[in-house]
Amino acid sequence: MTRSVKIFFSLVFSLFVALDLNAQTGTEISVTGHITAEIIPVFSASETSQMNFGKFSPGPRGGEIILTPQSTISVLGSVFAGNGLHNAASFYVSGNEDAAFSITLPSDPVVLTHASSAKTMIIEEWNTVPSPGTGTGMLQNGFQVVYVGATLKVGTLIDNPVGIYTGSYNITFDFN
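The structure corresponding to this sequence follows.
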């Protein structure tokens, strides 16, 4: 092989190496990445029916009206149940399908106040269906209705004069 042929091959080889280096350092590759995010239903609860102990008359000793979550009442003491409607409270709880939740009821007595005087009655002994406690509720198909009952402590007619008594309470739904 002659010297000029060697130089020629050397130049051609150098040219290929230079082209290859330029190709490797100047080449960019773009790849598309994918992202996923999912929005789930917001957990919520709303009152769909107010608790109503109905119409009644206190007797000479007072007593109690027990309202069950199934909207039945029983009367203890000298309280006389009147005609009219009574019903348990109900709450529509919604959120992620099959999510468990806990129900926490008032731990202190709740006070009902007479519309035009300072006279009061007390509500305590709360109960629900499903039962209160940790993880006792389940959102089947993304919702559940919770029914709430309680016991109303009624005084005498002097303690609790004729009229309408109102109040409010807090119930907590904790999604587990």
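The mean pLDDT is 88.
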